[in-house]
Structure formats: C-alpha cells, structure tokens
Design a protein that fits this description.
Blueprint: H1 12-24, H2 31-44, E1 48-52, H3 55-65, E2 79-83, H4 88-96, E3 100-104, H5 115-121, E4 126-132, H6 141-148, E5 154-158, E6 166-167, E7 170-171, E8 178-182, E9 195-199, H7 202-212, E10 223-224, E11 228-229, H8 234-238, H9 252-283, E12 289-291, E13 302-307, H10 315-324, E14 348-350, H11 355-363, E15 364-368, H12 375-386
Parallel strand pairs: 2-3, 2-4, 3-14, 4-5, 5-8
Antiparallel strand pairs: 1-9, 6-7, 8-9, 10-11, 12-13, 13-15
Helix pairs in contact: 1-9, 2-9, 3-4, 3-7, 9-12
Length: 389
C-alpha cells in the first residue's frame, strides 16, 4: 500500500528495550509495568493508571470495577447510554455485565454524540453515559456534563482511539470517572497489544488492580479499599481471592516498549496534527466529501470521509478507486453498531432515530494517519477523491 492504514512506530530504542527485558529473565508483569503506569498517568494527568493486555480488556475492567464499589455500585439491568457509532468492545462489556444499552445518534460533523439527542435520552433509569472520543476527536464534555448535572449518572470514557487529544486544556480520558486507552499496533503508540485504564479514584484503582489478576489480593497495597488490610503471612495471601476477576495482565516486554513510545508521543501527536491541517485545507469545503469537524485538539487517529447525500456516485465506486491507487481504507469504526447482527443478543433500545449513524454506515470510510509527514499521500488521496467531481 502506498498509503496504509497504519505503520510501525518502533526503532532501535524499542528493540533495545525488548532485549533488556529478555536478558533480565523477567517477562511477566513486574517493575517495568509499574514504571510505565506511572509515566502514563503523569502524561495524561491522572492520579492512577492500570496497564492491561488490550484496550478491549481495559473497557472490560472499567465496566466491571463499577459493580464492586462500596457506595452506589452499578447493578445489572440498569440503563447505560452509548453512541451508535463505536467499536465493538465499547458495547460488549456492558452486555456481558447485564446492563441495558440505549443507543443515541451522533453528530454529522464531529461523529461524537449529538448532544441534544443525548440530553433527550437521559431518563430516571439512566445510571451511566459512555463518552467515546471517536478517531482522536474529543467529545464536547462541557455540554455532556451539563446534560447530566444534578443526576445520579456516572460518565466513563472510551478513549482508545484518542490518546493525546485535548479538550479545554485537559487530556481526554480524564473527564470521566475512568477512561480507557489502547496501545495496539495501529494506535498513537504501540506496545503491539496493550491497553490502560486511568482514574483518580483510589477505590476504583484498587478494584482494577484486583480484577486485572484473578481477583486476588497479591497486587494490592497493604492497606487498600478492597479487602481493608492484607495479612502479614505471604503464604496465605498468595492465593487469597476476593473479587471475581480475570487474567488480563500485560507483559514486561509491552511495558518496556511503552516507556520508549511515551517519550516519542508528543512528536507523534504534533506530526499527526500537521497532517490533519493539510487534509483540512484540501477538504474543508469539498462539495461531496465531509470530513470530521475537530472539537478541542484532536489527536487525529485517522481521517474520516462521509459522502454527502447529493453526491452523484456511490461509496463502492470510491472504495474501488482508493484500492486501485493503493490507498487502504475501512468503514468508520463499527459503523452504526445498533444495526449489527450481534445486537440481537443485547438488552437494548434506540432513543429517537439513528439517521446520521445510518448515513455514516452507508456512506462513510476512513483512511490512516501516521507519525510522519504525509504530504504526498494526502495529495494523492485528494487527487483520487477530486476525480469524482
């Protein structure tokens, strides 16, 4: 591909970090994971972070943790509001924990929540809103928080596509009670597989630590918000299980690579934003293709295009030409997920209509962004799309 969806962000530094871990003989979760968690929390401006083996696992732990709080835990059957366009594992943990999903339409320009529709969807049954920052673009958190003001509603963030994005001077992923991130190959930094949950709530932090590894007490501090005080006998504490947890631990290899990637992240984001600036110049007033309107400072995971309704051509024709010119593309995340076959298993409802999500599902696609300049690739993309009129 001349213009692929993703490319490697590794160089000799990551290779050397991997070699150091291999030489140490300590490959499972250890000191480097702790160092990465400290560095990651500092970067995003959160009190705590918990590294896991994927962004999907991060979403799973985030949802699970809310069920084990001592005060006002989330309970099965309660209502959670979700945007109609997101990735599959935004939704799956909600279903797996027996929550009732309510799908809400998105804004045609930002591709995040339509705030008016979100406000209308909030009911006396609503206990949680999942804010998804799509393709690097921050949600309008001022308006989201205004919509739930005075209500007993929890906000959490799926920020897996938006590491490095900023809204009102603050990193996305930190506006909710918890926020999740992905460090998969195609994301802003890559540990190949990996994810992070951040929170500034100590109790939730301890619950996340416990859930990450079998639900045991081993990784908890002596005094903690899960079991109180751990015993002094290491033998009896080694297999003491207190929560129904998982094994979604990361490797030392992933953390060592992550530490090197974090050093480069500011420059990665800067270049991604420079690439986006060129794209905006070329497409901001295009008659047939609509690009994503930036809220705050997007970290530009990728570049979305939605073919306008009056266009005299089909998405299939566009995709065919893109592939012919070696420009890789995909649907916009999961499309309108409320129309997905898997939703037959969900307890769910739709608030109002999903007209914009349907339009994105029919007429949307996205291409990649990268950590290096894309002037030639973006100009080639423009040439292909401009050939349609």
């Amino acid at each position: 591909m001349e213009f692929p969806l993703a490319s490697s962000t590794w160089d000799d530094a990551e290779v050397a970090a991997i070699r150091d871990v291999l030489a140490s003989g300590m490959l499972t979760m250890g000191r480097r994971v702790l160092l990465f968690e400290e560095a990651f929390a500092h970067y995003v401006g959160s009190r705590y972070s918990v590294m896991v083996n994927s962004g999907s696992s991060a979403n799973l732990l985030m949802v699970a943790a809310l069920f084990y709080r001592k005060d006002e835990p989330i309970r099965r059957g309660e209502e959670v509001i979700v945007p109609a366009v997101s990735w599959s594992t935004t939704y799956y943990p909600l279903y797996q924990y027996g929550l009732r999903l309510k799908f809400v339409d998105i804004d045609a320009e930002t591709l995040n929540y339509n705030i008016e529709r979100l406000s209308e969807a909030i009911s006396r049954h609503t206990r949680m809103v999942v804010a998804v920052n799509l393709l690097g673009n921050p949600c309008d958190f001022k308006r989201i928080l205004e919509a739930i003001d005075g209500r007993d509603v929890v906000v959490v963030e799926d920020n897996c596509e938006s590491l490095g994005a900023v809204y009102d001077g603050r990193m996305t992923g930190t506006f909710g009670l918890m926020g999740t991130f992905s460090t998969f190959f195609s994301h802003h930094i890559s540990t190949m597989e990996g994810g992070v949950v951040v929170t500034s709530d100590e109790e939730l932090y301890h619950i996340l630590l416990c859930l990450r590894a079998h639900g045991w007490t081993r990784d908890l501090p002596k005094r903690n918000r899960v079991c109180g005080v751990k015993g002094d006998n290491p033998f009896s504490e080694s297999f003491r299980f207190v929560l129904p947890g998982y094994n979604v631990r990361p490797l030392e290899l992933s953390a060592a690579v992550g530490l090197e990637q974090l050093k480069k992240l500011p420059s990665f984001i800067r270049v991604r934003r420079e690439n986006a600036s060129l794209l905006q110049t070329l497409f901001s007033k295009h008659p047939y293709f609509q690009i994503q309107r930036e809220v705050g400072q997007s970290s530009w995971f990728g570049f979305s295009f939605v073919i306008k309704e009056r266009a005299p051509f089909t998405r299939s024709a566009v995709i065919e030409q893109l592939m012919r010119h070696c420009i890789e593309c995909r649907p916009i995340v999961g499309g309108n997920f409320a129309r997905s076959e898997v939703v037959k298993w969900f307890d769910c409802a739709i608030s109002g209509n999903l007209d914009v999500a349907d339009r994105v599902d029919r007429n949307g696609f996205f291409v990649g962004n990268h950590h290096f300049p894309l002037d030639e690739q973006i100009k080639s993309l423009a040439a292909v799309l401009n050939s349609f009129g």
